[in-house]
Amino acid sequence: MRDQLTRAAALAAVLLTAAAATATATNGTTAAPPRAFDAAAPAGAAARAASVRPVLAQSTGAQRAPGQAESLRAASGHAVSVRAASGARSHEVVTWGASADRLGSGVPDRAYRLVVHTSVAGSAPRIRLSNAFGDRPLTFDSVWAGVQESGAALRPGSNRRLAFGGAATVTVPAGRTVLSDPLPGRLPAGTDLVVSLHSPDAAGPATGHGMAMQTSYTTQGDHTAEEGAGHWTSTTGSWFYLDSVSVRTAPRTAAVVALGDSITDGWHSSTDLNRRWPDYLARRLGQAHTGVQGVANEGISGNKVLADGAGQSARNRLDRDVLSQPGVRTVFLFEGVNDIKAHTGVTAADMIAGYREIAARAHAAGKCVVGATVGPFKGWGEWDQAAESVRQEVNAFLRDSGDFDAVTDFDRVLRSPYDPERILPFLDGGDHLHPNDKGMQAMADAVDLTALDCTGGPHSAR
Q1: Euclidean distance between CA atoms 314 and 374, whole angstroms
Q2: For 289-312, how does the pLDDT look when each residue is reduced to its tens digit (9 = 90+)?
Q3: Which of 52, 198, 240, 286 has the fewest CB atoms in 10 Å of its CB?
Q4: What global pTM score does this model have?
Q5: Phi, psi of 125, rounded to the nearest 5 degrees
Q6: Are 356 and 306 in contact (CB under 8 A)?
């Protein structure tokens, strides 16, 4: 008994010590990289319970029942029981996310070293892997998480093996996702987290996120346990199979999910510098110490509200990409320009019906919804006066309908005072549709942080 108490006290001391180690970044600059996870398990510990079945979640994001015990494995290999949300001391919140889509074909014996940037700090980090678009089961036999040093190299001592229901290997059925077991220790805000994963049998349609605006790395063979960059000689601009990262935080802490298209996805922002508008928003939230601290970017380049094409439509992916994420308080809806400029006969009435459906479903799930007006795009090749008329009608609805808990007027932020149908040149990424880094920051600065907190509850509940 004395040994068990000593181990538990040691783990608690490590977690408390690590709470002070947070990294922040402001004005688009990157702070010094945070230290590695604290109190991580030895590599062999996760494999000791290989007979335990992995905890699988539907692509709709089913989570463990409130109050169900989870396990954190301390450095000694002993399990430390942590009670879930009903214990009222912590709950799970998404700290990073990327929308899932079809991403070419899986390659057997391929390993990926995926770099992602977290938002909210917390303990017991865990990841979600996705086979949402696969047509066959997909096995991962080695999954590790560490902290980036530079390029494909990890901070020495940070790489830790992830388990799934106690097992080192997990098979994800077609159309499903899987949640890892939590790692012990604390993950600071603004961490460049690196998830390395290997599949011996990947084939058929792969699942991932195509436009990451972040360099990640690939190799053949299983080199996931290695902290050095020697075998990771190929690069990719996509995130394969990794769907989200979550942490445990205080009960009042929550997240916002940005549901959007290529502007939210960060096209024309600087690669590898985390200058998408949701990144700037995450840094603002971190400095403001609001209730909402987590930010998940669920943008897809080319995405539409109404029709599948570049990814499933916002309506069709709402449950998987947004409502399934843990700890979400607010949905930030910023889509529509791709529906409007495609000239497929979509009317303002069609768009309004789509917006209302998304808002109603999010409200029914207990989430607040912030809508955003569609920005100007005169000068883009598909712009014409007919599309502009639809945009103006849609924006009038978004501003005045009352269907949303709050509205952010991105049109007003981005448009030129000299030609309101055009983006202000100072904020233009060059194609007259996508903002540059300054434009991304201006968008984030325009968001009312108190609206994200939504202290009065969803509109439908008032």
Answers
A1: 15
A2: 899 999 999 999 999 999 999 999
A3: 52
A4: 0.83
A5: -65, 145
A6: no
